[in-house]
Model the fold of this input.
Amino acid sequence: MKKSNRKKLFWATFFVFLCVSVVIVLYAQGYRYDFQTNSFQKTGGIFLKISPPGSSVILNGKKSYVASSLSLPFLNASSLFINNLLPKSYGLDISKEDHRPLRLELKVDEQKVTAFNHIILIKDDLSLKNIVQNVKNPLADNLLKKMAYFSPSKTSSATSSLIIFDLENGSSAPINLVPALPKNVLIFNITPTLWSQNGKNLLFNVDSSSKKYWFVYQENKESVLDITTGLQNFETKNLQNFNFDDSVNNLYFQYKNSIFKLASSKNSASVKIMPGIKAFVSSGNYLYFLNSKNQLTQSDLDGKNQTVLSAINFDLKNPKLIINSQKSFPDILDKGYNFYVWQKDKKSFEGIAPLAQNVFPSFDGSLYAITSNEYTYIYTNKDLDEQPFWKDGFLWAIKNLEGIAPKNLIWFYDNYHLIYQSQDNLFLSSIDERGGKQIENILENAPPAGGVEKIFSPEKSSDIYILIKNQIFKINLI
Done:
């Protein structure tokens, strides 16, 4: 070979080597060539956490993946990471046999991972399983782990007709009222009224042929305590805002414009500890109340050592104080008017949801769902440390179906899905709508006659329990 040809071959080889080396280096640094823009671009990725496990994911209608790289049995989920994606929009079709498919449209940014940690697919066949009959006056505890109800069954004794139903394992246990009730009492009705915060004590009343009795069921002692003496001198219809303190040794309630305290460990008389209040709530070692001067005030559990937290400069017509574990101040629901939250930077309350009807905290208290006739508002009570990285105080509105405030709203499975009743049907909706709105009609194949009365579901459970005409039905959604 001639010397000139060898030089040409050398330089051609060197040039190819140089080009390949540059491509390899760029590839190793996360660059990919985009034929649409004819340039190298930094890549990003997608991270998905999907329930149920083993779901299939098709990217842009071409490449297929299975979400099984990291099993998460506690949440009945698995995850999938897709990397080296050019920064642009992608369509993801997520599916699983016997489940409804879901499509997400999402954008990938360079050098960033777009994460969706709360994807759920709903079963095709959502059949209702009847598990409990003769259910009256159901009341779920604060943790949504169990429910108390009156069962006026003709086949069992009236003194064992208060039932505790475990929403996690589906078991029932009757409460024996015989030791607590006077002899020969004819029970007409039993009304569960309040669970303690830890779900260990239950306040309930019994309507008999002679009078109304009040009791506290104490789970730890497996006993029923009669507290009728402390409540019998009040007009029942005017008793409001029952609260157990954290020790569960004392019961607080509002009668007209005063707070009363009752020792729940013995059958004693109630003691007035605070006159002239509009609303109150207990939390930890404190009482919080709105006084006659429209001041939000904190005191000890005896109503002493009072500290004014804030003067309220707006009129409140139907105030209710709401305690949140993420906050140092209560929030205020003025039902039918507005929902007010404390603004730390302004040191004042601000109305965020006009015409608010009800407030539903998520399982961990980090989010509120606030219902009104036109919108359901989502409000964050702390900075969320995962995408979509909502900040404390972030608020956005979801348009209600048919312009009607949803009924029987609950948080489902995690802190990112809601189940609610609209008309006679139930719907599931995600609150993270970055990839598009997910809304599923749960009862489209079997809408109940007469509609849904109540819904219950424990955290991280794929089961929901529905009360329809004094019967509890169970549906497994995932």
Q: What stands out?
A: The helical segments are 3-28, 228-231.
